[in-house]
Specification:
Length: about 400
């Protein structure tokens, strides 16, 4: 059972049983998922590294979320996999066949890669059915009609087959773009920020429907996003990029609960960062002493404590703190605290209303089982303990 993460407000997408999934695949596109292997991929623009020695293995039928701030190299990686761009160095194999490497590059149209763009890129002069059929040129009319009909039925757009893109809502255009990408039965599907142009309420519904279809067809998929909550909802695994480098790849639990860097920790939510030095496998801070057996003695470290892992202590026990203020957030309340010995305030999140008076003194405890200690890999601003998240 996966633990409930605070940034996740809906359950992880479930998987269908093998028999049901196989039956639905036969009704939709008979997709044959392929593995995607990326080895030592490097790309530069004007002397600046856009990708720096990135290696990934995406399993057949897996949904991988490529996550990172703007400019981290996510879209560049997608374009190279699709064959739209050439890397400076590296190798790519799809379904075991090399499509990019020392021996040359396979043309985009021969890679069996589908792509859904952020703006959907539908042909305005073609109706819905014609857009979906676009990648099926050269097939027999009967096969085209069967494939288009099955996909439109699966995405709920059969009645819209004769409409044109300007007559559709944003969610409907997104579904047409997905159906068009799946029609040629790609080995790999690439989706570049596919839900970012939709409003929040519509985005949740369209995203669920999209992931259901990708699960049903067992389509090997990379979804690019800058939104960590979206990555947690949809990805079997998450690959976190920063400045062209792959920082960490693993399950949502791995990246959220076991980040390897302070950047990875703070990217998923606010985090209190406390500087310290590792001695004897531990780090002492004004909020307590925490284990760090994986770090060498005298190493400069950061102790990362998420606001939800601070709590009010029962009675006059725990660490004394002064209330600086609070902010009601609906289901939770964020309380800002001053703790003696810290250069800046810390943030605590409590369920419901804490109703704490400013300047009042409280006692707090730390859930040490969820504290993460990482190397001090970036300069720390002594004036604040809650660095801003770059998205």
């Amino acid at each position: 059972m996966r633990p409930d993460l605070t940034i996740q407000q809906e359950a992880f997408a479930g998987r269908l049983g093998t028999t049901a999934a196989s039956q639905r695949r036969s009704l939709v596109t008979d997709c044959v998922p392929g593995t995607l292997t990326i080895e030592n991929l490097t790309a530069s623009f004007g002397g600046d590294l856009a990708l720096d020695d990135v290696s990934l293995e995406i399993r057949a039928g897996e949904i991988l979320c490529l996550l990172g701030p703007s400019g981290s190299g996510k879209s560049t990686l997608l374009r190279i996999v699709a064959g739209i761009m050439r890397p400076g160095r590296g190798r790519i194999a799809i379904g075991g066949d090399e499509v990019e490497g020392a021996d040359g590059s396979v043309e985009p149209e021969r890679r069996r890669v589908g792509m859904v763009f952020q703006d959907f890129a539908l042909f305005p002069h073609l109706n819905v059915a014609e857009n979906v059929a676009f990648g099926l040129r050269g097939k027999g009319r009967r096969e085209i009609d069967r494939t288009v009909g099955a996909l439109l039925k699966r995405v709920g757009l059969e009645p819209f087959a004769g409409r044109y893109p300007h007559m559709l809502s944003g969610g409907e255009r997104q579904r047409v773009a997905l159906a068009r990408a799946l029609a040629p039965r790609p080995l790999v599907l690439l989706m570049d920020e596919p839900f970012s142009s939709l409003d929040d309420r519509l985005r949740d519904r369209v995203r669920r429907d999209t992931i259901d279809l990708l699960r049903d067809t067992a389509t090997t998929t990379i979804i690019v996003t800058h939104d960590p909550s979206e990555a947690v909802r949809v990805g079997d695994r998450i690959a976190l990029l920063r400045r062209g480098r792959l920082l960490q790849c693993g399950s949502a639990e791995d990246l959220y609960l076991r980040p390897k860097t302070a950047f990875a920790a703070r990217f998923f939510s606010d985090v209190n960062e406390l500087p310290g030095t590792c001695r004897g496998g531990r780090v002492n801070t004004p909020l307590g002493s925490f284990a760090a057996p994986h770090l060498p003695d005298d190493a400069s470290v950061r102790v990362c404590i998420r606001p939800e892992h601070l709590r009010l202590a029962g009675g006059a026990t725990g660490i004394c703190a002064r209330v600086l203020g609070s902010e009601f957030l609906g289901e939770t309340e964020r309380v800002t605290l001053d703790v003696t010995g810290l250069a800046g305030p810390v943030s605590m999140r409590v369920l419901g209303r804490a109703r704490l008076e400013a300047d009042s003194c409280v006692h707090i405890e730390v859930d040490s089982s969820n504290v993460v200690v990482v190397p001090d890999d970036e300069p720390i601003d002594a004036d604040r303990c809650l660095p801003e998240v770059t998205t």
